[in-house]
UniProtKB/TrEMBL annotation:
<dbReference type="InterPro" id="IPR042114">
    <property type="entry name" value="GatB_C_1"/>
</dbReference>
<comment type="subunit">
    <text>Heterotrimer of A, B and C subunits.</text>
</comment>
<dbReference type="GO" id="GO:0005524">
    <property type="term" value="F:ATP binding"/>
</dbReference>
<keyword id="KW-0436">Ligase</keyword>
<dbReference type="InterPro" id="IPR014746">
    <property type="entry name" value="Gln_synth/guanido_kin_cat_dom"/>
</dbReference>
<comment type="function">
    <text>Allows the formation of correctly charged Asn-tRNA(Asn) or Gln-tRNA(Gln) through the transamidation of misacylated Asp-tRNA(Asn) or Glu-tRNA(Gln) in organisms which lack either or both of asparaginyl-tRNA or glutaminyl-tRNA synthetases. The reaction takes place in the presence of glutamine and ATP through an activated phospho-Asp-tRNA(Asn) or phospho-Glu-tRNA(Gln).</text>
</comment>
<feature type="domain" description="Asn/Gln amidotransferase">
    <location>
        <begin position="329"/>
        <end position="476"/>
    </location>
</feature>
<dbReference type="InterPro" id="IPR018027">
    <property type="entry name" value="Asn/Gln_amidotransferase"/>
</dbReference>
<keyword id="KW-0648">Protein biosynthesis</keyword>
<dbReference type="InterPro" id="IPR004413">
    <property type="entry name" value="GatB"/>
</dbReference>
<dbReference type="GO" id="GO:0050566">
    <property type="term" value="F:asparaginyl-tRNA synthase (glutamine-hydrolyzing) activity"/>
</dbReference>
<keyword id="KW-0808">Transferase</keyword>
<dbReference type="InterPro" id="IPR003789">
    <property type="entry name" value="Asn/Gln_tRNA_amidoTrase-B-like"/>
</dbReference>
<dbReference type="Pfam" id="PF02934">
    <property type="entry name" value="GatB_N"/>
</dbReference>
<dbReference type="GO" id="GO:0050567">
    <property type="term" value="F:glutaminyl-tRNA synthase (glutamine-hydrolyzing) activity"/>
</dbReference>
<dbReference type="GO" id="GO:0006412">
    <property type="term" value="P:translation"/>
</dbReference>
<keyword id="KW-0067">ATP-binding</keyword>
Amino acid sequence: MTTQFETVIGLEVHVELKTKTKIFCGCSTQFGAPPNTNVCPVCLGHPGTLPVLNREAVELALKAALALNCRINQDCKFDRKNYFYPDLPKGYQISQYDQPIGEDGWVEIDVNGERKRIGIIRVHLEEDAGKSMHAPDGSHSLVDYNRTGVPLIEIVSKPDIRSPEEARLYLEAIRSIMQYCDVSDCRMEEGSLRCDANISLRPVGETKFGEKTELKNINSFRFVQKALEYEVQRQTEVLSSGGSVEQETRRFDEATQTTVSMRTKEEAHDYRYFPEPDLVRLQVDDAWLARVRDSLPELPLQKRDRYEREFNLPAYDAGVLTSDIGVATYFEAVVAAGADPKAASNWVMTDVLGYVNAQGLSIQEAPVSPAQLAGLIAEVNKGTISIKQARDVFKIMCETGKDAPTVIREHGFEQISDEGALAAIIDEVIANNPKSVQDYLNGKEKALGALVGQTMKATKGKANPAVVNKMILERIGK
């Protein structure tokens, strides 16, 4: 009998904070600067230098922890996490260990139409390490210290995640919340959002955790799910054959879609944590905490629920529109400009996002403004153009930046709704297609579509289909 296993996953998400300077010095956090130019004696760990805490980094960390429903430790400290690696010039990292800035939080995700709560153990502040770059032939490695000292938070989930898909949904939820709060830009391709995953399997019904494997620095939502799916398969095969899973650190190989062993996993005590002697305790008074709490925006799930309630949108639409703060802002501006919410949702999700994604743009860079899109929707509602024509108009609007009425006028897109103008054309179509008329009268509904199609062809697609339908039915006596 094959043993059935339950998957247990916890994620450690590193989020670089959106500050202009590093956490303990005045160096720039600009991404993409020439290697080793955003550095100074402090972040390079020169003897005799002292760290000075960046207040904005603390404020962003507080904001993130509150948005993640954490209890705030208003009196906490920093610690030294000791390890030796080429991209860590001091030989230790300033982090938080037993007294993080936030604890006992949670995030909710939608799984198969139901809300699931994922617990968060801790949110702690720390400095980032540098970046090692290895030559393809293995002959040498280079280190860029620009990232050293960039402020980040680490968000450690409880082992509440039960599938690779849930892990992806959780990570997407974290990104949305951080972007809504303007805590981070969360650009995974730039390393400002990184994820480590811990995964283990245990027999169904067992309460004791299995031996876990850590997957390091996965850089896309899709790869998080793929890496975990592979690990489920690998660990299932190991356990089913009577073997045991080794506690180790692995990486995801994008080329082979597999995970590869890197090293055996060190325990926390190997880091020899002790209180950071060069920093005083961090104390957050009630007024500061209240001010940060009051600055929190409407968060993604709150906005999603409001869209369903206030705009009567389907859950799917509300989920897509609120997953990104830029998309939500654009959609709400279209509705504010007078568009019907469902029509606005359809246009934003399909045409607008389709165009900007194909062009590699953000929605903030969309060539059609929310007001212009609302104007296009209004032209459809007035019957000036059909939906099919509107999509052609939209493409021209994207190319030219012109509004819908101008494009319609300049390109002759006006829909023909005048019955007097259509009468002769419809009469001719009916006379030339007696079989279709008879088929329809005999109960073949599709035959009416053929007559409408011939009329549309004769008018080069400009006739109003609803008017054409009505006039044909009146003329053939049904």
